[in-house]
## 1
Amino acid sequence: MNKQRSFIGFIVAGAIALLVIAIAGFYWFFGKSPANLIGSTSQPGATIFVSKLSPVMVSLLANPDRLQALEREEELSKLKTSLFAKSGIDYKQDIQPWLGDEITLAIATLDIDRDLENGQQPGYLLALATKQPEKSREFVELLFSKRALAGGNLAVEQYKGVKLISDNSQPEQDLLAGAVVGEGFVLFANDPKVLRDAINNVQAPDLNLTSSPEYQKASKELPKGGLAVAFLNLPIVAKWQGLELPEELYNSQIISLALNPKGLLAETTFLTSSEIVSPSAPLSKPVGALQYIPASVGLAISGSNLSNLANSDLAKLWRQATATIYGSEDVVSRLAKPLADIQKRWGINLPEDIFSWVQGEYAIALLPEKEQTTPHWIFVVEKSEGVEQGVARLNAIASSNGLSISPLTINKQKISAWTELTTATKKTDVKEGASFSIETKVRGLHTTLGNYEIFTSDLETINEILTAKDNSIINNSNFKDSIAAIPRPNQGYIYLDWTKSQNLLERQVPILKLVEVLGKPFFNNLRSLTVSSYGTEARSLKGGVFFKLHNS
């Protein structure tokens, strides 16, 4: 078990390396353009070694040294040094001369020996493209000779014309197998059987990922010039995690990472055998409701027609994805805690009491405050059939909860406030006893501006909306740059200002701090991220996430 655990550490380091290597490409500056930093091919060549039953495969499609030319503080150099320090390998001398334009990491099998009694032992496969096969063979020989000198117990075998070398060391040492296959790739695995299966996949093409109909359909969605690509077989990912999904709509997912003059665009496509039901008609421009969202916002969600959201395939994707990734809704519930707090405080059901009558444009926003754990919120909805009745319904719910509907005027704008009367005590002279006062607490407000009904959590927020009409998010240059990278038409945007929301997110999801440590170079430069869904294929759902960086 120690051998297995030790090599897993190596693989995890490799996975993080792929991520950081891709991230390193972000750091262009002094007028440098990333236009020439594109993948050498739109698809990884190592798919011929990967089984069609593999749950996950991720590939970097550019030589790391091409990215290193653009890094600022030698993050990539430090990474490569630390990865190979314990092995006694010098990257520049031993690897750089032969390493080509692809690095692929895959979970080759869920259980190497297929024996459930001894637990799951996943098989990992790492494929490195080589441009000089002889030098790469020398590297493999060097690597294993150093392991032999360190006490490793080496085994050499010929399998279908390929020389396999493995290290059957003592349990406390790493378990490693390697080979150079043909003229194109160097393979490493955590068991010789994984390498033998990889060679079988080449010689029996119907076994490998390239021949998978799901992968063939997904790969057609890949844009040209992506720097990295990942493919997930979603039902097998769920099986790997020991999950039984409540509904299994999407079969596979493919992700592509590409550099953009303003940051990084990650595009993803989910494939299904069912017809896709879009929650609303696609939008060719940002929704007008965003004109009432201040630029100080930390999180903004905009789109059209919330009434059909719960039954849409987008919602089904969300439920399947969160169940697959997290195994539970705990993390998701933490992220949605501000909305859950609103439901609890008001005694409402958001889908039934609000979303059901929102058929036009809408915008939802959170404005974090450093001093408060609960952010201010804004909800803007376009006037349409049902809105007036919806507001009346909210007034009735407020009244049933003991709130009063009070008219206010701010900057000549008529506002309705849901208020609560409370008593406060004040200590006075002992002989006179306690002094009581009545305070009015605002629990929410709403008003009409143009063709929109606006709801807010407090007076400060609605005053900001009324007094800063020219300082809305829709006029913010950072937001404009972010949505410019997202194709149109689309289903709207989820926009997160990382700088303003970081503290709030860390409180809601503590594990995020660990992720930030692992991806420090990225998070230190992250300014915002924008998510959108787009594409009109009948059996696929396409979307993207744009990461905007500082100084870009």
## 2
Amino acid sequence: MDFLIHVDQSSGVALHRQIYEAFRGAILSGRLRSGEKLPSTRALSKSLGIARATVTMSFDSLLSEGYIEAAVGAGTFVSRSLPEDLMRPAMETGDSGSLSDPVLKAATPKVKARSRGRKRKDGTESIVSTGEPSAVQGYRLSWYATALRSREWLSFSPDEPNVQLSFGRPAMAEFPMRVWNGLLLHHARKRNLALLDSPANAAGFRPLREELAAYLSRVRAVSCQPEQVIIVNGSQQGIDLVTRVLIDRGDDVCIEDPGYIGAQKAFEAQGANILPIPVDKNGIVVDKLKQHEREREGFSPQLVYVTPSHQSPTGVVLSVPRRLELISWAKRVGAYIVEDDYDSEYRYKGRPIPALAGLDHAGTVIYIGTLSKVLFPALRLGYLVVPLDLAEVFTRAKWLADRHSPLLEQQVLADFIRMGHMERHVRRMRNLYEQKRKLVIEALKTHFGGAATVLGDAAGINVVVRFPSELSDDEIVARAKTAGIGITSTSHCYLGESPRGEFQINYAHLKEDAIDSCIGTLSKIANASRI
């Protein structure tokens, strides 16, 4: 028989693999039917102009996987034992042949490319094939996945390391890499084979948990035992574990408005009933929580999520009276407080305010810490401090999520803290970031005059600024990106109506001599007219 396939000798894909994929796709799509005879390896190699051994290698793979069968003296045939419902000609399913990969076209889109979501009473989505009305086969997403799919908020774009002012990056060039590498090498040279195994305790490397407990006692006034510390892969995993352990669908969860979008979406995806609580110059408005309590009979929120040391995104710091008021209220109504303390190390005026967990003596606060802003984002190590009676269940949840965090990095981090490197690094970076913040505010005054308003307290590694413009927030962000400036609109942080022209500007990783020019470029963009 004649069978036309195309091979590209300039492609990076091996020829035998191209032939294999072509035949496999043709069989699964129905182009080659069960029992149909295939061309001989000699004839096929001649027609393609390639070595017969290459074709034979392809046929051997198809034969070993059961797509084809050989009969001595008769030739090679498409296997007669393939399930008929997997071998549908493309015309029967309405496939226009728009997919270039025959394997992908045959294997997955037959149902999914022409499917639609059907909502169940509980809100989950049943994905039902429309290609075969007489034999409908349903595919169901979980409630969690449906919640993620139905809320368009997260997109993954290519890395852009050269963008200035991009959100959330610390000054990684200032990290003491030589010290860190020396500690890594020290542990690697020990040839400790235990590093290659899974640790017995999913809560994390015991010496690191001890060092973190001592560190938090010194710098955040958080008194805790190592048994309360759970090592996680960054604060976002900590938030995820909180949702898994504490939240059921329909539970009331109070969050700051505006607030951190990663927490918002984690709670929504778990099915929580989100109650936005406004933020003023002193942080979350506890009186609004009390108002909900008065107005809703049986009001009993499961938790309140806050970022008290440097509110995300406004930058305000929760005052001490407001902290004590929040703890008292949460204790009375039986709600947990989830304290996300993501960059508390960087405060540039006044004395550091103790963490909520340091003021709590009733097991009300669950504390989340991360090292992404202090050290470097790729480290992917953070920690939870949970009430002692919750330590075991959180450890089990951590084990189910990913078994354990990287062990070598945990050992290095334990040494880095124990030897004083982390606190020295934080002190140095605090001075550097304070200077950069001053330069950003000076540049905003120079280029925007009185039109720009800086919000929040002198803390963190970013500032929030409002300025007027004829352009929409999206247009400003897009034009800034084109100019190599990565600012972020705060509009996505608001659950209700968001103010126009409010942006987060990250300055931590900028060189000091680049700050003025970046803000100057941003000013020109903001003052441009809409085309």
## 3
Amino acid sequence: MAVIKRALISVSDKSGILELASALIKLNIEILSTGGTAKLFRDNHIAVTEVGDYTGFPEMLDGRVKTLHPKVHGGILGRRDLPDHVATMQAHDIPNIDMVIVNLYPFEATVAKPNCTLEDAIENIDIGGPAMVRSAAKNWKDVAVLTDASQYQAVIDELNSTGALAEKTTFALSVAAFNRISNYDAAISDYLSSFNADGTRNAFPAQTNGRFVKLQDLRYGENPHQEAAFYRDLYPAPGSLVTATQLQGKELSYNNIADADAAWEAVKSFTSTACVIVKHANPCGVAVSNNAFEAYSKAFQTDPSSAFGGIIAFNTTVDKTAAEAVSKQFVEVLIAPDFTAEALAIFSAKANVRVLKIALPKGGATAWEQGRNSHDIKRVGSGILIQTADNHEIAESDLKIISAKQPTPAQLQDMLFAWNVAKYVKSNAIVFCGNGMTLGVGAGQMSRIDSTKIAIIKAQNAGLSLQGSVVASDAFFPFRDGIDALAAAGASCVIHPGGSMRDEEVIAAADEHGLVMVTTGIRHFRH
């Protein structure tokens, strides 16, 4: 066990530090500290020895050098169980330092400011702090290292209870400390690596350092012979899947999580009350309506057979009426911002259904504030592909009508709805919609005409008419055959990016069939 007689405190974030120092004094623990922290203690009548007085060497170079001294690092790193270490420390008058409480200069917060300069960033790179943290973490059997205010109370409670800290405690603190240093150094590397030789910045740094925190081990991966775990970003976006609270049900599987993310990302993109049903990462039913029950009922109609064992997501509170309808089907995962007590009582009868509650993001100027990823990452052999996330939104004013026939206001709204759904369907994507609901979804085919045919078959299987429907295609039509097929099925409008070498042929086909054709100028491939 680590017996604590002397603590060194040097913190940038002073949250909770006065309470911690007061508790240490009550335990007769001597406190060493540096400039600003020491002044705070003196101002609050907490006994403290400044590090400069302790080492006999003053702080200098605007505080860049203050703890980089053998009396500090010797006191931290010296092993109490090695006679040679003990003798050397005694010979050089180096007392033990048993606890190090350090948080670092706010580099991450500094570079997050839009007006941050390279000089600002450099001055917020901590040197002495990480050195002390590393030293204490390395010597964890004898030294406790605290790097976050959330650790303070548990440590004080243990000291009050036992008079010392157990090895399992100091080891856990050591691991947390090395993780903090790793994240800190990675943030510095990411930022500095983004600078080009001429001083300009690149959106993609020369070296990227992913930082993720494990949430849980999973029973297995995509298939039973694969191992898997679930991690979150170090700083997760508000309203993202990793912020979910599981209210009931079995543990989430690898596939559950992947599909739940697809459903949640799609449903929260709608401003109207919406329901999205996902199967194998593709929406198989999407609808907007006046309430949760109506949205679910319409979404379910699209493809009842695929909805079996699917993931269902709402962007509104699930009430008793919606819960009763959903509970009649086999559901793997149900997601919503909230549930009424009556709804939860209904789902409690189906203990295996995984019910997730996720607060919708409040919105803001950045993708992170909107609960979205700013970048997407895809693993390839011994490497990764990184791209900015497909967060593009389209408005009615962005649409270009290229057909002879003009759309009605209702058709424009249905086309915008269909376009939003197609964004979340695997390429090649063809989506038939009407009256705020999907009617047929064709996904993931090698040719666009095959996706069109599958969407038509899906609608036929569900007994849904495509007469007067609108169709969204995630990319341009390379040939007129897709237009011929959707027109034959009864579609009246089509929305797509445009830009094919055969656009004139495709437009002519639309006019020939009397279709409304609108282009967006934006493609939404999803692989």
## 4
Amino acid sequence: MAKKRIRCFPFGGVGEFGKNMMVYAWGSDALVVDCGMGFPEPGQHGVDVVVPDISALDALGLKLHAILLTHGHEDHIGGLPYLWPHLKLPIYGTPVTLALVEGKLSEHGQRAELRPFAGPGERVHIGPFEVEAVHVTHSIMDACSLAIKTPLGLIVHTGDFRFDPAPIDGRPTAIHRFSQLGDEGVVLLASDSTNATRAGSGPSERVVGPALKQSIAGCRGKVVVTTFASNMFRIQQIIDAAVACGRRVAVAGRSLERNIEITQRLNRLTIPAGTMVPIKQVDQVPDHELLVIATGSQGESRAALARMAQGRFPGFQLGEGDLVVFSSSNIPGNERIIAGLYNHIYRRGARIRHAGMAPLHVSGHAQAHELKMMMQLVRPRYFYPVHGEYRNLIEHRDLATAIGIAHDRTIIAENGQSVVVDEQGVRHGDAFRAGAVFVDGASRDEIDDLVLRDRRILAEDGMISATVLISQYEGRLLGEPQLVARGVLSSDVSDECLGEIGRELQGHLEQLGQETLGDIEAAKEEVRLFVRRWCKRNIGRRPMVLPMVLEI
């Protein structure tokens, strides 16, 4: 009988940012850790959500027992509405995380079995595993690392974490508990690599409060503060700063409203009576007494801040003397969109303050010194950097070797490359399919590669429609085809050019036999291929061609 071993299957979040999902297996028993989503890249037109492709799970032959969640950020729970119906597993998490998941699933008409983790230092039995949630600080409430007990030793999956010496809720990362886990014996540490390229340690979340207060106090008009909707520690500091400056607070953004309601219900957010005002009543509050917390820090076109910046938010207008505070960082790839948002805000007459001007934002991820501290606390036999692009994984491994972890006790394995841990060491296992599923958020439908390809062609090369009339009974062409271009530069395809294509297409079709022209589908294909090839040969583009062959 083959010896049992630990196997790790990264379905997302390793070699990339976002859509985090890992499967840990002991023998044929397995647990899913996180089920996140990502955002589309340029060129993925009409895609709203990207989630892990879990089609390989059936082929792996694993008995899945549960989904374990480290925290409630979208890149860790956002895939649940799309993947949970296929998995149908109980979901474990901390109170805030489970409350966020419950709301997210209910929006999609789903209801899962939600189970809270046991208390501090206690473990819950899930199949052959014992799992403990270890509290860590992050930019969302109730984040945790996971300690998964196997016969070979503990797996510690850090999730997103940092060591904040003075967290807003007074609940620091459980340093002593991690040290105790190290004493017990950690066989594998899978650790967050997001900030592995940043030296030192990050500042405490508490440095943001004074900077917010100073910015708000210096404004004589309305103040709008935008941040990530899930960061309730930041929301608490924004509210505290507003109250200290004599302002009432309104909230603009459905996700923000929902998260505030959840954390208030769990007694995790403190708001003095009389502070909040409904967003529809802000016109009744003097400008110098109003602060609005708005979603849309990344320039999302449908978010509250974008509508304010373009003068499209009902009952609220930015103007001279107003201030917009960006208490957030720019997600890589969003710089151009955010710059455009800045321009719209300035056109309204308002001014901007951001983290480049004052300490208005701190990262929720551990930097190099903190990452090394985690390794020194748990003292793993083997080290596996996760959560980050390839450069982050390599930098994180270099940190491990710098503190004395032997290079052959570390491993780099991206999505689709399994990892095996046994008494002989750590090594690569079999490769497996771990791609992405594209989702159109409006229709909740998955988008296949062909649809995505067509959307990309439409966006980049445009479309040409070609209308051809054919005699139904004689199978011959009736006049010159008519072509119309959409989304194609007139310098590339002018009216004269379209006329030339039409005349040459007419000549081509007239050379075809009566049998071909009499077959509508065959005639459409001839039209499509001729026009595309003509465009490729003469203008260097391949627009989408919409052939319309009509029998008369």
